[in-house]
Amino acid sequence: MQEVYARINRPEDFDVLYEDLVPPGLAFLLGPYAAFVRSLFRADVFQHHYSGGFLGLTPLWRFEAQLLHLAGARVVSQAHGNDAHLSSQIADLSLRHALLSSYPMLARREARTRRRVMYWTEHADCMFGGLMMDGLGRWDVLPASVATIDVTRWQRERPYSRADGRSGGPVRIAHAPNHRGFKGTEFILAAIEQLRGEGLDVELVLIEGVQNREVQRILTNEVDVLADQLIATGYALNAIEGMAAGLPVVANLEDDRLTDVLRRYSYLDECPILSASPETIADRLRELVLDPGLRERLGRAAAAYAAKYHSDDTAMYLYGAIYRHIWNGEPVALIDLFHPLKSDYSRSRPRIEHGLVRNRLAPAHGLQWAARFAAVSADDAPEP
Fold first, then answer.
1. Distance (Å, rounded) from C-alpha 116 to C-alpha 125?
2. Could you tell me the residue range of the domain that residue 23 belongs to?
3. Contacts of 25-29 spanning 24+ positions with Cβ under 8 A
4. Residues 182 and 60 in one domain
5. Kind and range of the H or E run holding 47
6. How far apart, in whole angstroms, are the C-alpha atoms of residue 223 and residue 186?
7. What is the Rg, in whole angstroms, of the alpha carbon atoms belonging to the chain?
8. How many folded domains does the chain comprise?
9. Helices (H) and strands (E) in the chain — how many of each?
10. Domain stops at, among 95, 111, 127
11. Got the DSSP string for 249-306?
């Protein structure tokens, strides 16, 4: 690591920092070169984002892949965020707007980002696809998300609440924005206020600027729902943590242009995330608040999904296959690693059943909760 993001991590979370290799005052200048040389003698495969590896911020960035290949190493590139976002290529203008709001320099640096994307597209030995593919012309493996975690550290530690917005105490909804504009936080805040205005007992737990260990405690012990991101189509690390904790997760999976390829050729159809947009977030949260059985069903499916597709087992399968192909030269069909009909891994484990259709509730369920809410509201109406 070049540095520690002290708001969410501690130095002991990492094995080696640049300042461990060179004098701290020279870490920014000399650390990348020291880390690169040290790693050449210790690693066979280098994994990093499109900004590059250790040399990504140095004048040698244009030669990093060639130097690694010259040393006999292999390179795996993964898109993580602003390393690969090409602003002018993002088809969803709301996402482009949210990125401009939260990352104002992103568009100004697009030419720089594009050069690095094209460089690694040409030179990397393996590249990832996923839900962030606008402007990316190549992928060799297609998981829905690159993130995997130790799911055993995120297991739920309390029973599912039977609260239904009217009795049993508040339904607690967590939201953890790194940048509020990007995640659509203002729409979640407005939805919570709307539900409260309807008389529902709802509490928002806003998680910002705290250590990851505190996030873990809150998600496994204190909340009933996780509302993740509403603007960008997809889900990332926080949603995976919430699913591992057995929480029903709400996020935007609305854009069929991005999701169809992952339903047909990967595992997204097994994902139990309840999809929402800024226009529908209040409806989706209302459904979850009113129906504790739905929360438990989606929460249990979420934990099973995280264990199947975002756990250490997943990482061993995914990266083991990649390394066998790019290092050992075995004829592994990386493009089909998670194909619903071809993947030995996906088919060898029980399919995740959650009752959603394209990450949305079936129409019959929607009618049931609407009728129930109308009946409850009528009971609360004043007598004529």
1. 15
2. 11-127
3. 27/2, 28/2
4. no
5. strand 45-48
6. 20
7. 22
8. 2
9. 14, 8
10. 127
11. EEE----HHHHHHHHHHSSGGG--PEE--TTTHHHHHHHHHH-HHHHHHHHHHHHHHH
Whose tokens are 């619903």? That residue is: 340
For residue 202, what is the enclosing H or E element? strand 202-206
| Amino acid identity at 24 | P
Residue 132 main-chain phi, psi, to 5 deg: -125, 80
The 8 Å CB, 24+ separation contacts for 209-216 are 209/7, 209/8, 210/7, 210/8, 211/7, 211/8, 211/9, 211/10, 212/8, 212/9, 212/13, 215/8, 215/176, 215/241, 216/153, 216/154, 216/241, 216/245
Hunting for tokens 């998300």 — which residue is that? 145
CATH value at residue 207: 3.40.50.2000
Give CA–CA dist 215/64, Å, rounded: 36
What is the pLDDT confidence band of residue 384, given thresholds at 50, 70 and 90? very low
Segment 197-220, tens digit of pLDDT:
999 999 999 999 888 899 999 999
Structure token pair of residue 227: 């509302």
For residue 313, what pLDDT is reported?
Answer: 96
Is residue 302 within 8 A of residue 247, CB to CB? The reply is yes
What is the 8-class DSSP label of residue 174? E
Q: The tokens of 212 are what?
A: 């990851």
Parallel/antiparallel/unpaired status of strands 249-251 and 171-175: unpaired
Contact 165, 171 (CB under 8 A): yes
How many Cβ atoms sit within 10 Å of the Cβ of residue 132? Answer: 24
Same domain, 103 and 178: no
Cβ neighbour number for residue 183 with a 10 Å cutoff: 24
- Computed over every residue of the chain, the mean pLDDT equals 93
- Confirm whether 335 is domain-assigned: no
Residue 380: the pLDDT is 60
Which amino acid appears at position 177 of this protein? P
How far is residue 377 CA from its own chain's centroid?
36
Per-residue pLDDT averaged across 73-89, rounded?
A: 92
Give the pLDDT confidence score for residue 378 in this predicted structure: 56
Of 210, 138, 133, 128, the residue nearest 175 (C-alpha): 210
Contacts of 152 (CB under 8 A, 6+ apart): none
Helices (H), the chain: 27-40, 64-70, 93-102, 110-123, 180-183, 185-197, 212-221, 237-244, 256-265, 281-290, 292-309, 312-326, 344-348, 363-380
